[in-house]
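Inputs:
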Amino acid sequence: MLIGKPPDIPSSEITSRDAYFRYLSRRRFFKGAAATGVAAIGAERIAQLVSPRTAVHAGTKLQTVPSPLTTTGEQLTSLEDITHYNNYYEFGVDKGDPARNAGRLPTSPWNIKVEGKVAKPLTFSLDDLLKLHPLEDRVYRHRCVEAWSMVIPWIGYSLSEFIKQCQPLPSAKYVQFLSYYNSGVEPWAARQTNIYWPYSEGLRMDEAMNPLTLLTFGLYGETLPNQDGAPVRIVVPWKYGFKSAKSIVTVKFVEKEPHTTWNDQAPDEYGFYSNVNPNRDHPRWSQKTERRIGLPFYEQRRTTLMFNGYADQVASLYQGMNLMKDF
Amino acid sequence: MNRSTTVLLKTAVWIACLVPVARLVWGAITNNLGPDPTATIAFSTGLATLRLLTITLAISPVRRLSARLVWLVKFRRLLGLFAFFYATLHMLTYVGLYAGFSLNAMFADVAKRRFITMGVSAYLLLLPLALTSTTWSIRKLGGKNWNRLHRLIYLAAICGVIHYWWQVKTGVLTPITITVIVGVLLLARPVLAFLQRRKSRAVVTA
């Protein structure tokens, strides 16, 4: 199903989130006045003139096409839960913190820098990326290493389409993703954790090229909410959620396995691969079952599937590997 | 403090202590326990336990600060029992919603997972304290023995705090506040005892 307007809206025509909130507060002010409508439009215009650079893509409709790689037979997690139960530690370690704090993330303009073992370093603007390939609807199960799970209707296209444009050299064996980090915008990161920022994640080249690996721009028909990794993130549905880096600013092609944030923190708990694997327990809890988000407590518990149920598409990537050791 | 004030204050403490469980029950009835109800129940009962243990631990050092605060000790048993009440709810949450009432799963968890081992230890340390909380037990054991036994609360609190640290992800610093408070309250005991000894010695030498 095609959703919404064509994607080529100049960013100048998108009401920024800040402007919208200013608009709302002004609207409240003018409520009751005879000239409410006219004044509100005026306020919106003024707000845009005052800060034209704060245009935020969040909440913009995206035009999509269906995909055979979408997951069927699952009940979608509500938009409310997807946007209010987040692990995005740069904006606070509590699950509700990102929804409260991530509004400060400046998502426009946004560029991804491509570095490392490539023909030549490149920079892609968000508009470049949105035009690179048709956006697809991809429902995926999302399994967190903390043993909870969701079902999320993502929007994006296979990361492989982007990687082809990057022209990696044959020596590129891994891809590293670095997330946005600015201690001024995200003071919680240093206050609540002793993690070394920016957030770094990585995939082996064949994992990155697997069609399931999604370069993601939206969910539920619209651009990504900030707390879900706006404006562009990776989604790797057969791995624990922390492998799916949010708000990506740098993509680096490298020869050796890159350092990854949670692996740095506790290598015995978070392996580089971190494939969803019910047989390989986290040292502190079992991974055999998971809690589905948004259900009553007596209905949450369910069995965790190998590779999060995507074994048919990805098991071949790990042939000959001992997944208990290389977890 | 007169009797009616005590009754009034005790009622207030009861109500305050019931707030966390009341919120959970209300949340369960209205299906409003957040996106991950199981985790909400586990976290809020655990946090209530630690907070009540901390408040219980605070009573002795705080009342020593002034002779006018002696009445505080009247609330210690109530607070301690509420801590045990929430610890029991916390345990039941684990047994029912995490281990699915499976004994095998529980034995495996306790053997393999240090944060669960630590949590169970804390609970087992609280158990004899709850069982000997009656006036009859105090009389039966004798004040000295009873006091000695009830020093287990120090160990239980330490185990509880370690359990919290081992549960959160490495690098997350949320448990720091309660750790500092518990640390101060535990250290306050030898420090206050030392100060008192010096004071009485000063009195003797003078």
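Chain B has a mean pLDDT of 93. Flag for discussion at group meeting.
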